[in-house]
Design goal:
CATH superfamily of one domain in chain B: ATP synthase, F1 complex, gamma subunit
CATH architecture of chain A: Sandwich
Shape of chain A: globular
Number of domains of chain A: 1
Helix content of chain B: 55-70%
Distance between the termini of chain A: 30 Å
Radius of gyration of chain A: 12 Å
Largest sheet of chain B: 5 strands, mixed
Helix content of chain A: under 10%
CATH class of chain A: Mainly Beta
Order of helices and strands of chain B: HEHEHEHEEHEH
Strand content of chain B: 5-15%
Mean pLDDT of chain B: 87
Structural class of chain A: mainly beta
CATH architecture of one domain in chain B: 3-Layer(aba) Sandwich
Strand content of chain A: over 45%
Shape of chain B: elongated
Oligomer: heterodimer
CATH class of one domain in chain B: Alpha Beta
CATH topology of chain A: ATP Synthase, domain 1
Mean pLDDT of chain A: 84
Strand order of the largest sheet of chain B: 3-2-1-4-5
Low-confidence stretches of chain A: none
Low-confidence stretches of chain B: 200-215
Number of strands of chain B: 6
CATH topology of one domain in chain B: Pyruvate Kinase, Chain: A, domain 1
CATH superfamily of chain A: F0F1 ATP synthase delta/epsilon subunit, N-terminal
Number of helices of chain B: 6
Order of helices and strands of chain A: EEEEEEEE
Distance between the termini of chain B: 30 Å
Chain lengths: 87, 300
Amino acid sequence: MAKVLNVSVVAADHRVWSGEAAMVVAKTAEGELGVLPGHQPVLALLAKGEVRVTLPGGERITANAEGGYFSVAADIVTIVASQAELV
Amino acid sequence: MGAQLRIYRSKIRSAQTTKKITRAMELISASRIAKALARVNEAGPYTEELSKAAALVAVHSNVKHALTTEPAKITRAAIVLFTSDRGLAGAFNSQVIRSALQLETLLEEQGKTVEWFLVGRKAVGFFAFRRRAYLGSWIGETDEPQFELAQQIGQKIIETFFTHEADGGVNEVHLVFNQFVSSITQTPTVRRLLPLEIEGKVEDPSIPAPPVLRAEYEFEPNAATVLDALLPAYIESRVFYALLQSAASKHAATQKAMKSASDNADKLITNYTRLANNARQAEITQQISEIVGGADALAS
């Protein structure tokens, strides 16, 4: 079985989305950062913009996030923003 | 109808109307408790993730931050007091104000000057009545606090924390709020917010093998900038937590107060009904004896 990422998108007052994904692309202060399973641990600040999550089936989920950070550790991806919503 | 009877009847009616109102308020707050608790739960993941991340940065880098550094000498402290906007909640407001005042006494004994931030109209009223000064207040949103309110409060706190003591700044911040324990119990809680003591364990099963990770962890753009952005967010989430706890406690306290008010109204109605029956019976007895007396007078 191919490795997957465990993704959760969390806003200040609710959990926006959580589930498994094949790839996550987020916009950080220094540019876009793509994460595949097995990525090195990262803690990055999010710039205002969208976060794209590609599901194992190939579908895509897009979320708008603002004012937060993005952490990757052992295939667990957490996107935490004070404001976040699915598009 | 006799005068006495009329008085009792009007008292019964008034108790019944009061009971209708208190019963309605009891039901409303009962439904709001559930909603407020759901919001506490929904805000949980955010707070959790933030404290995890803050702990991570603290462990994996050697960055010192002004918000986490314990000053050599604390001379001025601030208390953020969370009350409600409306009363009718039993001891809810008085107990939290009392424990804030105890904290003030304690801090003053340690030689610190105390400044105040007030949340909720009840705290503002308390201070206005005693003509006491405060640095800032927020009213009108305590029943259903939004995150924006927490952000405003958090920013004001950080701003004051970074102001020099001579210009009215503080170097310690405490939160005093009602913690929701159960629908029956809400305890006033004192938490020190600043300087931050980062909570949360890094030995989380989801983040394995710290020695290996320690070298590898990458911060973007760098650890100091990440910490700069994380800590204010962390403070806001702590304030938001206090707001939500206070809101849930307020609804629970209102429900309890209104329940006992309804019960009390019930008791009053029972008592007055008894007295009214008594008066009615006395009136009938008097009428009968008058008729009998009249008939006797005519017959003789």
